[in-house]
Design goal:
The complex is a heterodimer of chains A (about 180) and B (about 180). By secondary structure, chain A is α/β, with parallel strands linked by helices. In chain A, about 35% of the residues lie in helices and about 15% in strands. Chain A has a single domain, classed as Alpha-Beta Complex (Ribosomal Protein L13p, Chain: A), CATH 3.90.1180. Chain A has a four-stranded parallel β-sheet, covered by helices on one side. Chain A has a two-stranded antiparallel ribbon with strand order 3-4. With about 180 residues, chain B is an alpha/beta fold. Chain B has two domains: about 110 residues, 3-Layer(aba) Sandwich (Glutaredoxin); about 40 residues. A four-stranded mixed β-sheet of chain B has the order 3-2-4-5, with helices on one face. Chain B has a two-stranded parallel sheet with strand order 1-6. In chain B, a hairpin with a 4-residue loop joins strand 4 and strand 5. In chain B, helix 1 crosses helix 3. The radius of gyration of chain B is 34 Å and the shape is rod-shaped. The chains are: A alpha/beta (about 180), B alpha/beta (about 180). Chains A and B meet through helix 1, strand 1 and strand 6 of A and helix 5 of B.
Amino acid sequence: MSAAKRVQQWATFARTWHIFDCKWQDPYQSANIIKKYLMGLHKPIYHPMNDCGDVVVCINSREIALRGDDWRKRAYFHHTGYPGGASWTLAWELHNKDPTMIIKKAVYRAMKGNLQRRHTMERLFIYPGEEIPEDIKQNVSNQIRQLRLVPQRLDHIPEEEVQQYPKVMEYPPDYVLK
Amino acid sequence: MSNKNLFFKSGFVRAPLQNGVGRYVCQLQRIVFKFCKSSGGSRGLRDYIEQDLVQFAEQNPSVVVYLKPRRHRSPVAVAEYLNGSRVWMNFNQKTHSEILKWIENLRTQQDDVAATRLRKYQYTDHPSIQGPWTPFTFKDPELNVAELPNVKFGANNRLPKTATEELRLLFEKQKLEDVKTAE
């Protein structure tokens, strides 16, 4: 193989590091997107027998959003293997124990259960907050777009911007706001 | 790819030394017909030898043709090619017209094509003019200098505009128009 071809091979099969912000995202819907990047399904060169999966770094996993009353109703099952070893942990309990666990399990469940799955999972990094180790941060060269818009709280918008926002009408001065 | 193909030689569609582009060299070098003079299984091959073999030999002077009669054995043809490969083909109980077609196949093929699994049905020395894909093809060049994570690259940009946003833009437009009319 000539030098140019060798470099071509490196370029085509280079692993890209993607970053994904989990803030206000549904972990089960995001998992389907993250899965594609982890397995390399987004690449035109994809083939199940070539190793073209990318690395995904998830941040803000503490701030995921579950649908409906999933926080109270969704249970995660675990069995120790001993009689009476079954346990059901509610989503909010699991999230309190380990804020990275729900997104991890969602991605794991989104992938087909084959021999490759555990190796693919090794390429997923999840961090509960904004902070990423520097050696991981400097590899990141792409960002995966979120599914949902992140809502902004009124008290987080700067005061001037709120003042300048167009209004249909002003409340009368003697109007008592509830 | 199923299990039976695991030990099946794989390859690409190739013509040796661009055979047929400009000049054609018949790849078949030698063909040996083995048959029985009396048994019924050789009937088709005997018919072929009687009716068509001389014409075949005349039309293909580069092919050496051997006839090998042998008693009470099934008829076969063994073809040898320029690249040294050898193809054995059973002609037992085959009719004259079938044998005619199979021999045409042996004459025109360049190797034992049936013994290879073709990975692709086409082949090119130049698969791409613009070069193979890399992760950086079609990427936004702004990403090269962007500090990630960044809301600009992370937010969903495929959602339709909300009614609130639509109204706000209308208001901005109206303000601009007001400024224009005032001037």
